[in-house]
Structure formats: structure tokens, C-alpha cells
């Protein structure tokens, strides 16, 4: 197989990565994914020209192959251990990167990684690196992650600055049946307190 001929690392092929609503061409995105995956040194990643040479005789539409069954079939033709697919999509004001690692022999989706990023399209390659590292269990540089990942709370990024110094204070007021129970006398099972 491709993996055995290049060493003991598992072999992997990437046919295509879907790109929707972003400024990068799907072929460019696919090449960025391959480059970042190769940097991890976890897989023998099959060259895209080798993939095209093998598959173009079989199916000229192979670049539209995103589903598990199609990828397993193409992975067997390529004689690789794993297939990687995914998408990078502008979704509202976020960029969502989704990656799926498929085990060709077992015919299963082995791992899935989905991450929401700030809409900083000039940083797509860093987003891909973060997603691949997450998929493979590799620790990321948290300074880079904090600039790009779209958490539920505001974060420090090239577009936003959040300052958390200074005093904080909060008040909660309980209404309805819970508020009535808090105000009820203790002899009636309440707490005899003001509901603030």
C-alpha cells in the first residue's frame, strides 16, 4: 500500500475540501489542509497529482466526493489507510471549519472536528492548523487560538479588545413562586427574607 511503501506511518489522502462563502478557492483550501497535515508528521499524505492520476481513469467527478461511502470507495482505489474531508464555510459572522477523518479499512468516520472562528478570512491557514491539531490531539498555541476562536464571550482579537480590570458587582432578584417562598415566614416553610 501507499503507507507501507513510505514507512510505518498510516497513509492518508485528501480528495477535496468544500469551501463556501469564503474568498479562497476550494483547491487552495485543499492544498492548505494538505500542507498543515504534512507539518504534523503523523501521516504519509498522498500527493494530489498521484491521486488525480489514479482516480481520473476511474471517475472524472471524484472531486465531488464528500460522503463516507464515496470516500471509502476512493480510499480503497488509492490503497490508503485514511481519508480526510471537510468544509470551510462562512456561516453568519463566523467561519466554521469541519474536518472528518475516515478509516478506509473499517469503513467508519474515525474522528470529527468542528470549530467556529471569527470571520478573519486572511487567517484561514491558521484556522486549518488549529482544527487539524484538534482533530489529531496535538496541543495548539493558545495565543493563536485566543485570537481566532469564536467563544461565546468576547475575546481579545485583532478586532476586539476586552478589559477585565476593575471592580465587579451583581444583583439577582427572585420573582414568582420562588420569590414568594423566599419571603414566606419560616413557620410556613419559607425563608423570611427579601428576595434579592
Describe this structure as you would to a colleague.
Helices cover 34% and strands 22% of the residues. It is α/β, with parallel strands linked by helices and 196 residues long. Strands 2-1-3-4-5 form a 5-stranded mixed beta sheet, with helices on both faces. A hairpin with a 2-residue loop joins strand 3 and strand 4. Helix 2 crosses helix 5. The protein starts with a helix and ends in a 13-residue tail after the last helix.
Q: Could you give the distance between the termini?
A: 69 Å
- The helix tally amounts to 7
Oligomer state of the chains in this structure: single chain
Largest sheet: 5 strands, mixed
Helicity, as a percent range = 25-40%
User: Uncertain regions: pLDDT < 50 for 5+ in a row?
Assistant: 153-157
User: How many β strands by DSSP?
Assistant: 5
Overall mean confidence score, pLDDT: 84
Amino acid at each position: 500500500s501507499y503507507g507501507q511503501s513510505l514507512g510505518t506511518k498510516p497513509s492518508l489522502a485528501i480528495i477535496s475540501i468544500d469551501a463556501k462563502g469564503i474568498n479562497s478557492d476550494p483547491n487552495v483550501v485543499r492544498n492548505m489542509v494538505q500542507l498543515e497535515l504534512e507539518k504534523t508528521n503523523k501521516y504519509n499524505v498522498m500527493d494530489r497529482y498521484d491521486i488525480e492520476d489514479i482516480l481520473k481513469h476511474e471517475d472524472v467527478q471524484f472531486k465531488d466526493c464528500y460522503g463516507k461511502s464515496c470516500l471509502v470507495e476512493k480510499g480503497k482505489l488509492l490503497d490508503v489507510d485514511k481519508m480526510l474531508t471537510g468544509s470551510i464555510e462562512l456561516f453568519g459572522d463566523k467561519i466554521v471549519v469541519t474536518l472528518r477523518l475516515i478509516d478506509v479499512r473499517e469503513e467508519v468516520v474515525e474522528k470529527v472536528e468542528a470549530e467556529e472562528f471569527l470571520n478573519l478570512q486572511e487567517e484561514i491557514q491558521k484556522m486549518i492548523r488549529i482544527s487539524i491539531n484538534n482533530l489529531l490531539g496535538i496541543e495548539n498555541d493558545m495565543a493563536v487560538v485566543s485570537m481566532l476562536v469564536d467563544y461565546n464571550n468576547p475575546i481579545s482579537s485583532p478586532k476586539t479588545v476586552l478589559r477585565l480590570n476593575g471592580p465587579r458587582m451583581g444583583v439577582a432578584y427572585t420573582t414568582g413562586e420562588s420569590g414568594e417562598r423566599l419571603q414566606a415566614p419560616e413557620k410556613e416553610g419559607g425563608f423570611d427574607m427579601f428576595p434579592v
